Amino acid sequence: MTLAVPAPARARPNALWSFISAQPLGAVSLLFILGMVFASLFAIWIVPHDPLKLDFAEILAPPSRSYPFGTDNLGRCVFSRVVFGARTALVIGILASLVGSTIGGLIGVVQGYFGGRLDFYVSRFIDILLSFPIIVLALVVVAMLGKKIVLGVDMNLVVAIAIPIIPKVARVVRSASLSVREMPYVDAARASGFSHQRIVLRHMVPNVFAPFIIMFTAFVAQAILLEASLSFLGLGVTEPTPAWGLMLAGNAADFYREAPWMIIFPGLAISLSVFAFNLFGDALRDHLDPRFKV
Amino acid sequence: MIRSVAIGLAIVLGAGMASAQTTTPTRGGTLDFAVVSDPPNYDCHAHETYVVVQSVGPFYSTLLKFDHSRYPEVKGDLARSWTVSADGLTYSFQLNPDVKFHDGSPLTSADVKATYDRMRNPPQGVISLRQATFADIASIDTPSPTDIVFKLSSPNPSMLQNFASPYNCVYSAAKLKDDPRFPLQNIMGSGAFRFVEHVRGSHLVGQRFDGYFVKDRPYLDGFRIAYIPQPSAMLNAMQGGQIKAEFRTIGPADKARLEQAMGNRIKFQEATWSTGLIVAFNTEKAPFNDPRVRRALSLALDRNAASAGLRRTSILREVGGLVRPGAPFAASATELAALPGFGRDINAARAEARRLLAEAGVSNLKFALVNRAVAQPYTPAGIFLVDQWRQIGVEVEHRQLETSPYVQAVRAGNFDVALDFQNQVLEDPTYTLLRYISSDKSPENPSKLVDRELDGLYEKLVRETNVAARTALIRAFEARVMDNAAQVPFLWWNRLVAMDARVNGWAMSPSHVHGQDLVDVWLAP
């Protein structure tokens, strides 16, 4: 007879380390996103020049030690504007995605929980919203709402970008909550006489949080792209605010032949940040969704 | 002054060089050129937009026209000579004989009278934007088919220039009698070209009128206008040889691109444009109802630095007062420097600006600058203004609107500060200074300011015929405008016209509505 000696308890791997080791691309993209956040927060100490300052002596100057990304047609430092542009992109991107995903998520949970006619009518309305291309829907909303600046952020632009996100998140979260609704603990909560509000908020929402967070992350990228597109079309952020889409619009189109750095660097910033958020969202999905863990 | 002389010399030398290169005009060929959009209709009397003049102008004659070699002097078009009475109340014109409309009917003084009657007293259903311009005409007599006499109720020194406006297309009296709205949908003039076809959104074609009254003119067989709304598409068309000219303007970057791509196949003419940007303050809103605040904001603008810097990458160019730099009655450099906001010492001006704001009790001033969402020249100008005001501690939200909501906001007074523009089609100060008088007398004044002293100066100016006295009145008017600072000039634009090197005989002028009859234009083989 041998005594079973209990194996020493293995320390539970750190969640972050687990993510990094399982999703190295996701980790790199997270690093890039953290870099963006750092640059946004400490932009004023990072940039070599005031991003709004005009310097007519340095108009269309090529990249140099003093101006790492060159200057634009008004002598403004492109590097400083790209760094400050990250702040605009992140603030509007995160805010819009948060608003859109939260409202969409709540709608999806309520739909999934109650089902029936409410679910049917809301789903048809969401189908209508989904039939519009995301940029068209945002254009309509921004044209209708105009501008409303609060603490330097155009809140109507945030709303315009958030609205097209709502139906997409609602659709995904509804699917997740349909299965959660059938769980025994939800039945138990119902049998215990808990209110609908308590069941939805305490039992449903936490269990659809994984798809929610994945959608939120993925839509930050969409929101950044949408903000850049709207600014490029003249409906988003206005000059002289540093914003990547705006840096590609207007006068940049006139000078890109003699000063290609005016469009290369903001273009790269948009591409890399959207790529990073998309990669991070995918990695997060792969990491959190049990269906992807084979 | 030196700058004005230099600009004048440059224009004269440019024209001289152009004419020296190719002196013998050649007949034949079609001039293809671009215009940004179709005319809303064909009635010259009902519009102020240049697309009407550039599209329809070659089909019509006017009584007088501007002489571009001596701009803004005028010369005869239908009129071969004229006299003005000593009291300035009677203008007598002798018309060229044998002038024919494109339908073969003769053009007589009755047609000119019918045209001017239509402009000064438009019949019901007819719009005339020239009504106020010709309000001083008391009567029009036609003693013979080639003589016409205008009698004025009071002297008006700008009247000869008014007669030369390209918007005064002379119509057939018979056609107007049948239908006063005939010119809206039909083109039948006596100009060098007759109408062939107009396809909206695409093109308009004119063909040489063989019965044109000027001997051996026009040189061209015809012209074809391509309507191209996008500047980049227009440049592509020019580079590809589909069009030979665009007569409004291009920017410095466009010039560089065309030069690089086309080498000696392209040429350029440039002049100070009779169009300028104006900063307008809404005097009905606090704190802009306080002249000290307005003056402070004007003082903060370094116009000289703006001119030196923005001219490299935009169509903005000269520093000037209320009258276009280089034009008769324009302020000299010394006179300009004495005006608040035009001095050379920007640090002193900004110190004074801060003092005025403190005196007015305005600290932490924040407002919105309403601007047009048009890249050239509005966006760089708006960015510059925001930067300048930031330097005296003023925070500005730059609000760029599409043209229609912009115009609506400015006209309705829904703005704090607006970046407005003026387009001086005529050079006479009676015309150019009208926008600065009290808003209850001039709907063009967006500031809503009422200043009876300015109105009084303007009334004297309108009736004054002595040049020295007029000049003194204009300087007093200008000083008053800059002092109350309800509307202050920022920078004047630069007109840069690109055309195929084979295009000759077209003369540059400070306004893009003049010189578009194409009578003297010819194409080198």
Written overview of the protein:
The complex is a heterodimer of chains A (294) and B (525). Chain A has 294 residues and is mostly helical. In chain A, 68% of the residues lie in helices and 1% in strands. Chain A is built from 13 helices and two strands, in the order ααααααββααααααα. A two-stranded antiparallel sheet of chain A has the order 1-2. In chain A, α6 crosses α7. The mean pLDDT of chain A is 87. By secondary structure, chain B is of the alpha+beta class. Chain B has two domains: 240 residues, Alpha-Beta Complex (Dipeptide-binding Protein, domain 1), CATH 3.90.76.10; 223 residues, Dipeptide-binding Protein, domain 3 (Roll). Helix content of chain B is 32%, strand content 22%. Chain B has a ten-stranded mixed beta sheet. In chain B, α9 runs antiparallel to α12 and α16 runs antiparallel to α17. The interface between A and B is medium-sized, with 22 and 29 residues.
Tally of domains of chain B: 2
Strand order of the largest sheet of chain B: 8-9-10-1-11-16-12-15-13-14
Fill in the CATH topology of the largest domain in chain B: Dipeptide-binding Protein, domain 1
* Main β-sheet, spatial strand arrangement of chain A: 1-2
Report the uncertain regions of chain A: none
CATH topology of chain A: MetI-like fold
The best one-word shape of chain A is elongated
**Structural category of chain A:** mainly alpha
Helical amount of chain B: 25-40%
Q: What's the Cα radius of gyration of chain B? A: 24 Å
Radius of gyration of chain A: 23 Å
Oligomer: heterodimer
Indicate the low-confidence ranges of chain B by residue numbers: 1-21
| Class computed from helices, strands and strand pairing of chain B | alpha+beta
Q: State the shape of chain B.
A: globular
Specify the CATH class of chain A. Answer: Mainly Alpha
How widely separated are the two ends of chain A? 38 Å
How many strand segments of chain B? 18
SSE string of chain A: HHHHHHEEHHHHHHH
Count up the helices of chain B. Answer: 17
- Average of per-residue pLDDT values of chain A: 87
